[in-house]
Task: structure prediction
Amino acid sequence: MESLHRFCKHLPKIELHAHLNGSIRESTLVELARERSVSLPAKLLQHEAEHHDADRDALFFNTKPRSLEECFEIFSYIPKCVDDVAALKRITREVLEDFANDNVVYLELRTGPKVLLMDHCAPEMGSCSKKQYLQTILSIMSLFENQEKDRHNHDMSSSTEKLVRLPMTPRLIVSVDRSGTVEQAQENINLAIQMVALYPDHVVGVELGGNPTRNDFRRFEPLFQKARDHGLLISIHCGEVPSATDEFDTSDTTLKKAYEEASAVLQFRPDRLGHALLLPNDLMNKLMQQPIPIECCPTSNVMTLELALHHGGNLIGGLKMHPQLQKWIERKYPFSINTDDSGIFCTNLTKEYLLVAKVFGLHENDLADIAIRAVDHIFDKPKRDALIDLMANRIEKLKNQS
Ligand code: IMP
Ligand code: ZN
Result:
């Protein structure tokens, strides 16, 4: 493994934008589908190996069909496979393990609560409510957090390894799906408010996601205001689809609507923005004056915008075309690097850091800086100082080793 790759792997990282069901391991999805006789679409399983020649770095090639539209088609198959409590427990545990093994020290996992079967083999056992869905995830998170602390203490006392893996702290964000109804959104927000009262240390926020071509943030805005009034922090996906160039550009009603929506999102001033990659210049300039932290998901952006398509699936070529990232890096805009849907985009946070480093010529110090600055964007504010100490300490050790 080259030394920059090794550094990215061992760098303690913060993940702020990961969708639970989108982070499912592909192998698990295939297994769950087989058990339930669900036939998955070919595009989900198409492998890119044949596109590599020997001198290309396979790590940075992804020719899977993952346009925005294709992603949402794929997403529709996951609930058919993750349809009962056992499957939910399994994917939650595996996703936590995968992030922790990638040296993520703090994870905010987001998911939309769903009604599942108690047991897909025994439908007569009835269903698991949306509240039970969230409680199932929270109980796995809490168990995992305790096990991580014990494992770390044990390793510290018994191992001679200098870089004992740090413990990961997981937190939960409740999602609202913008393609659903206002009533469904209301149910999720009310549930989030209930859950934050019951589990104040673990439920940290709410978010708006889902197919960006459906509906409009403004329909849901009063609900997010209510969540804010109850102390929940808020992240909104935005700028995922093209919009008009400014408020006077009225050439196309879809573009105009996208502009107005993005403008309304910024006016609401969420605590963080998801993606924000296609924001028009005038809105981006306003944001530069009064920044809101952005959750950047490099591979996801490249794949959904099909930027790698013209480079034979080369993510490096694709990321060079990213509409914003270079500017954010140069101007030190507050952004974090994230995975979005590691199972769908075949990625992990190590790969994302390495990809950004390769494309924008960043060095170890720059990457450490991005990782540490992301701590300022976490929703569990009381954890901030301890996390910074933990990370700074580990980064110091890492640098001394290289
Ligand atoms: P879940 O909420 O755990 O079911 O995670 C999967 C869901 O996250 C998908 O069905 C989408 O609604 C949402 N999602 C995942 N990636 C994106 C994205 O890039 N933009 C908007 N929504 C997304
Ligand atoms: Zn997302």
